Amino acid sequence: MSGEDARRAGPSRRHFLTSAVGAAAAGVAAIQGGGAARAAEPFHGPHQGGITTPQQRHSYFAAFDLTAARREDVAALLRAWTDAAARMARGEPAQPWDGGLRLAVPDRTASGDDGYAKPDAAAMAGDSGETAGLAPARLTVTFGFGAGLFEKDGMDRYGLAAQRPAALAELPRFVGDQLVPAQTGGDLSVQACADDPQVAFHAVRQLVRIADAAAQLRWVQSGFLADAGAAQTPRNLMGFKDGTNNPPTDDAATMAQFIWAGDEGPAWMRGGSYLVARRIRIAVEHWDRMRIAFQEQTFGRTKLSGAPLGGKSEFDAPDLDASDSDGNPVIAENAHIRLAAPTANDGARILRRSYSYNDGINLTAERWPPWRHELEYDAGLLFVCYQRDPRSGFSRIFERMAKFDMLNQFVTHVGGGLFACPGGAGEGEFIGQALFAAA
Amino acid sequence: MSGEDARRAGPSRRHFLTSAVGAAAAGVAAIQGGGAARAAEPFHGPHQGGITTPQQRHSYFAAFDLTAARREDVAALLRAWTDAAARMARGEPAQPWDGGLRLAVPDRTASGDDGYAKPDAAAMAGDSGETAGLAPARLTVTFGFGAGLFEKDGMDRYGLAAQRPAALAELPRFVGDQLVPAQTGGDLSVQACADDPQVAFHAVRQLVRIADAAAQLRWVQSGFLADAGAAQTPRNLMGFKDGTNNPPTDDAATMAQFIWAGDEGPAWMRGGSYLVARRIRIAVEHWDRMRIAFQEQTFGRTKLSGAPLGGKSEFDAPDLDASDSDGNPVIAENAHIRLAAPTANDGARILRRSYSYNDGINLTAERWPPWRHELEYDAGLLFVCYQRDPRSGFSRIFERMAKFDMLNQFVTHVGGGLFACPGGAGEGEFIGQALFAAA
């Protein structure tokens, strides 16, 4: 390895340490891991990546609270994040390893001798390095703005309140919501998706470090998809295929109609999309006791094939009018897919991009008659959807589902958020630049 | 899909639901996911899988408390688990979907009309189905026995106390241990490893359901490895390569000397191995502030290449006697690799098989001068190692590391356990059968 050779050749260890690491890091894309997903997704473009991008296998979602006092600090943060995200999407370290590209760092009083880095130290660990040698793994980093960027506790902190889109109104409180504040909301969101969990976590971890005094983590959620292959819809932890009826991302007209923000809101959101995230705990231990027939009635789909009940194959349109020989609907009135169907929601469509999560177990003394339960899985779905307007998208659809969906016996919404994800950045621009230029 | 065709053809939905699901599930191996890892690892053999098996990318570790009253119930559990694990390793459901292979189920009083399954219901959901259509993903399931199988609270619960190996003595309390009871110990252990996180979690989830009244979860931990490819050693969350100096698993003599139990203990452990697991939190947010040079001195290795300090490439033997021009050791006296080196530990060797974990964040008010910390990652390493005898393996090596390793500034052992993993099962046998036959 050339960096290694450089190190061995020189007389000054300190000097060559720095240059060797820098040189080798710059060549990371050439080293590359042995995984299947060597491909890089483009970072720059009219839309942000990670929305219509074919879904990667792993995700790390992070919501941040802004701690920056000044508007220019927020803009500087977004510029630094944009640069770092673009570098990481190419498989490069978030920052050159010689410690370049950094926001102002608060005064560190530690001396050099105790191992603590000084902010100007050339050898400061920039990127934490755990993706060195790995492929870009189709990393995308999608940034979103929560209501708190525009207004918090009644304060227009950054002079951006006039630019808040009407579509970024607070979500209504839905029936059954049990949202935990520590897993809900945030002023900024970052969703990193990649085919390698280390790449996704690494991306957010670098952004956290770069954010430094300007923003701090509020909540995070890692997630995964089963490796079902491109030809199959992956199954969620309930064993059912999830995402079957998504609008086609290669249909520009459909995307423009339902997913991308247009002229209806502020100019800076044009080409963007609104992200609704919901951390949905699934009572897996409960669900696993149900008959398959009951599970299928709950969803309105066949478990194994994914076909709507009464249909033949996964992609058949559900026949919501069909009834059986007793006159009962084949797809129950409160079946999940009936309540989610566009025809039942004035044609509303959202682009789902969810990940299963698995955060271990919680012991519980709760009992559901007639069974004792000694544990519950802290597992479920980080439901993520994108839409042109959440009022006619998620909220329109979920308002009735929250009340009537049979699935509600098995799922609890415990966290989440709503974020305005602006359009993409061109080369040299940063995500949200038009917002800061407009206000 | 043949199951789907069968379903459509018949007049009785209930009847064909059952047979369609059964037929299609039996053909799961033929459907197969599109992932890279279609291969299946053999379940049966002289050793259990998941020890010398090339490490898979995902892991779900589970420790159980036995609740069975009788010895024959424990044996029945192990037989059912063995059968289910062998099926899942082939890519089949844990149980035939018609509800076969089940332990006795406690009385369920629910009627059939509320959707709750009766134990004898033919349509009962056996396998929860979320791996239908997926490849086996090289699944291995490795079973271990904790001290509590042999003796608990001074009681010989199952008449097995005389068969407890001397090597299964409690681990000593190491300096710095902060083991949380809820993440420590257990009477039985199951480590499921696969190249797909859904496959690994699925396997444990089926075993939990099968265990029913005989055992219940005590603690779990999911983990992952970066996709570094077979030619590279994966990096842990500290950005360093982890596992470089593992003994060669294809060297039968080395495995027999250091990893596989021989004649020194009870006959039922012959061909088995002792598993030490430690849940090690890494103060990532702290580590990321360190200079690379300091990180390298801490490990005794170069970050990027993985070479020992003073060496040239990753697999060079560390020169523990080398000193620099000032007479100081090139590899510090308290560097991680010096304390771990076989030459520093009477030649002791262990087979490490660890996974990174990433369980989100905890908010904390703790401050490490001179910096404020508003969060800490709940991330680190589920350290897993196998050895012939933990007294001359992990405990021998870790006793000094716990006291002196520079790395201890950044890591905290918060959980884990010691388990005796018996030898493998032949066709028709179950894991641990020799123990139950001997006692």
In short:
2 copies of one chain form a homodimer. By secondary structure, chain A is α+β, with helices and mostly antiparallel strands.
How would you characterize this protein structure?
The structure is a homodimer of 439-residue chains. Chain A has 439 residues and is of the alpha+beta class. The first copy, chain A, is 23% helix and 18% strand. In chain A, the strands form 3 sheets. In chain A, strands 5, 6, 7, 10 and 11 form a 5-stranded antiparallel β-sheet that branches. In chain A, strands 2-3-1-4 form a 4-stranded antiparallel β-sheet, covered by helices on one side. The first copy, chain A, has a two-stranded antiparallel sheet with strand order 8-9. The radius of gyration of chain A is 24 Å and the shape is globular. Mean pLDDT of chain A is 85; it is low at 1-37 and 98-125. Chains A and B meet through helix 1, helix 2, helix 5, strand 4 and helix 7 of A and helix 1, helix 2, helix 6, strand 4 and helix 8 of B.
